[in-house]
Amino acid sequence: MTDTSLDFRVTREDLTRFMQAALVAAGANQASADAVSRALVTASRMGTDSHGLRLLPHYLKALNGGRINGAPNMVFHQRLAATGFLDADDGLGHLAGFTAIEHAMAMASEVGMGAVAVGNSSHFGAAGCYALAAAERGYLGMAFCNSDPFVLLHDGAKPFHGTNPIAFAAPVEGGAPYLLDMATSSIPWNRVQQFGAIGRELPDQVAADAAGKVSRVPGEIEALLPLGGSSFGFKGAGLAGMVEILSSVLSGMQHGFKLLPMGGPDMATPRGVGHFFLAMKPDAFVEEGTFARGLAEYLADLRAQPATPDARVMAPGDREWRCQAQRDADGIPLDSANQSAYAEIAKQYQLAPLSRLD
Amino acid sequence: MTDTSLDFRVTREDLTRFMQAALVAAGANQASADAVSRALVTASRMGTDSHGLRLLPHYLKALNGGRINGAPNMVFHQRLAATGFLDADDGLGHLAGFTAIEHAMAMASEVGMGAVAVGNSSHFGAAGCYALAAAERGYLGMAFCNSDPFVLLHDGAKPFHGTNPIAFAAPVEGGAPYLLDMATSSIPWNRVQQFGAIGRELPDQVAADAAGKVSRVPGEIEALLPLGGSSFGFKGAGLAGMVEILSSVLSGMQHGFKLLPMGGPDMATPRGVGHFFLAMKPDAFVEEGTFARGLAEYLADLRAQPATPDARVMAPGDREWRCQAQRDADGIPLDSANQSAYAEIAKQYQLAPLSRLD
User: Fold this and answer.
1) Do A115 and B110 touch (CB under 8 A)?
2) Nearest CA in chain B to A203
3) Which residues have a Cβ under 8 Å from the Cβ of A338 and sit 6 or more positions away?
4) Do residue B219 and residue B199 come from a single domain?
């Protein structure tokens, strides 16, 4: 959730500087530090606070614990003209992600599309960053990732899938890309906590207690429902399974149910996260220019649709681009928890602290 | 919904014979009749009754009206090594679908993956049939299609997207494929009608009245909500948009909002439906055999998960394969509406009627 009332705000340049210094101090090489700061700052600018600057302390802990290799030797194995495997050497998932989508785009420029399965990786932040990286260069991009279990199967009583996200981005001529980045769960875990913090009941059909029974009481929640809730959760669960198959089965990794928890306590053992990236050349199917014209027309028609009272119809990404413009102008806010965490990091690594904007 | 209490049942061979004869009588060539009967019989065997034998009268009407070309000259334009466009020449979408996924598999066998955008097509039945056709030959398959507007945007007051399905299938060694075939709406349209017929309230957050206001009264429903309902419908709407971009924008067709209604009244004007198909070789990323082993392990772990009381955890497709085994043994049921429709067709085209199983 965007909270622009927070009065501790920083520039993205200063945030990038700080993140990179901290990551390098914790043992990351420059390429890894560049990739992590690029992904986290992208997410924070767009208002995806759950996957933005909040994650820096986690990555530092994983580097310090030895779970993540700060100076990996990532090797790309091209298998066929449109497919390959990136061994991420237990490095930061962000470097794996940006590296893999580059290889996918290189293949797409030759044969129309390209896909890269990534293995021996780690948490990569927001999936949307890598789809977006493709769209910014004129390609359709897709990104998928598995994660440790938080989400029930349809009719299941115990978490099995992770929030297994799907990201899809398409380039828009003269405008910001179409950008969908969604978990295949009904609700994000941190939204459940937010409802709890303000004492509100959850929407129906989005989360369950320890027995797998649907509950609207934040304090009882032990698992998330798949997208579609009790009646149609087979859709979310099936999408999560598709993401799992693409991310871990294609790459030869363990599937998400067997992943060590992201949050620890074990911060020493590599997790072996899998990702999957796909890039397509928009003009690889019909005449050049057709795609750009068609997408512009589709988006214009979409944005012209009538909305319900007090609402507004938006294309995926519209909310994020608006937030980005605002935060680029006013700065990126840090809530009090993040202010403390970043002050602590500055002390620990003897870094110049973030400069608070006036 | 599977209704095995129906006592009018036919063999799939007889159903195929009847469908093909009717389609040929209405002007379809043998290749088109083969493709339609293959798709409809596949769906009916699996219990996907909304996309099975029920659709035959519709296709006959569209052939008779001239909207659909029964003897199309479908031309495949290979653009790059992994991508191409199939011009379906206003023929039956089923022939376009099976033709396109064949081309996608041929490219995948060479370069690891292949995708085909299809234009100038028509309704193709169940998207799952084409993903399944890939999985039956050892490929991962995906299928997407746009359709005329029934589904609201997130916060939208008027239908904009079609039910825009996503199908994904993966081959399972020695077993039936993983098969996900889902609309990106919250609920299928015919399910709303079924609730109405038995006087039941709809689940919350799945459908809306003419003003776009969520309603649980089947008789008031004028639009479906995107998957995710009022709170998280941006997910379903974003997925529908992804399907739209892949199906119509990549293929240079009009997007779904501008499609003529499938149900008429105009049965003379071609609709220009778009589809998108993708095939991937499972062993195009890591060592041969890794994918098969990993998928078997994932599915075994999934099926061993505990379920909520009176429920059972299933993988996508499990319900369908069970129904298929039962209907292959006992016959495919026709409800009274379909019995009348098929008797009418037999009369109209002077065909031997379906043989009712004892």
Assistant:
1) no
2) B231
3) A53, A54
4) yes
